[in-house]
Amino acid sequence: MSDVLHAVFFVMAFGAVFVAIILLEAGYIRWRGLSGIYHFRETLANLGTGMSYKIVDGIAIALFIQAFYSWVSQFGLQWNPQASLWSVLALIVLVDFCFYAQHYLMHKTRWFWASHVTHHSSEHMNFSTALRQNFTHAFNGAWILWWIPAALVGFDKDWVLLAIEGNLVYQFFLHTEQVKRLGWLESIFNTPSHHRVHHGRNPAQIDTNFGGIFIIWDRLFGTFRDEREAGEIIYGVPHMPEKPYNPVYLQVHEWASMWRDLRTYRDWRILVKPPEWVREQYQRSDGQ
């Protein structure tokens, strides 16, 4: 029980920091006389989804994710390195590569997309967009792809928790239009410029720039798109949610849609195919 309380306290403390940064960005935007970057109702929805996501995620980590991690680690290399610059860097790189793989599958597999679509359903790009998450991430199994490789190598689970949370904190700062290009850093690291492309819904922007901290994975595996070559960025997803300001709806609507498609077409491939597959395979032929 104490682990759960610690997790909730951790979430609330970081939540307060994130809200303060959001307010600072909103104030800066207003001071510059800009408009159309923050939308009040959407920001409230983002805060609502973010709070539910992190509370459930924190409890899940405390109750079963780290326990599963400890169980799996006995079957791995059991390296268990001492703290050093190289072991920390190795963990950061490993965790980020695993995030890339997980993130790629979230876009390419509808089962995972049912959770991830929430994050992409905003029409604006600001720090509050980073909090537009989905509590069902804790139950869809995607976390295995992020946590378990480090367990098989033999990293301490508390190290991995810090590396994952640090990765997420870094990604929070990618969600802004106020930071332009960052010179040579664009070649190695994921930046706001790269991440703006990732949130676009035009064909040249969809399924690009999956990295967390590093952009090198996208460059290596052919998923990179430079903002200067991506065209005008329109944020969101091809099929925007009907209730964009309802935090509960935003987190469950794609799950409901997926199960409706399963009931209608009786094809279990829907779960593992890309999000648009059912429309291409069935609905277009049905004249929808």
Describe the structure.
The protein is mainly α and 288 residues long. It has one domain. The protein contains ten helices and no strands. The chain is globular, with a radius of gyration of 19 Å. The termini are far apart.
* Uncertain stretches of 5 or more adjacent residues: none
> Roughly what fraction of the amino acids lie in strands?
under 5%
Report the C-alpha radius of gyration, rounded.
19 Å
* Number of separate structural domains: 1
Sheet of most strands: none
Fold topology:
Layout: H1 2-31, H2 40-73, H3 85-108, H4 110-120, H5 143-153, H6 157-172, H7 192-198, H8 216-221, H9 247-265, H10 277-283
Which terms summarize this structure?
0% strand, 57% helix, 288 residues
Quick structural overview:
The protein is built from ten helices and no strands. With 288 residues, it is an all-alpha fold.
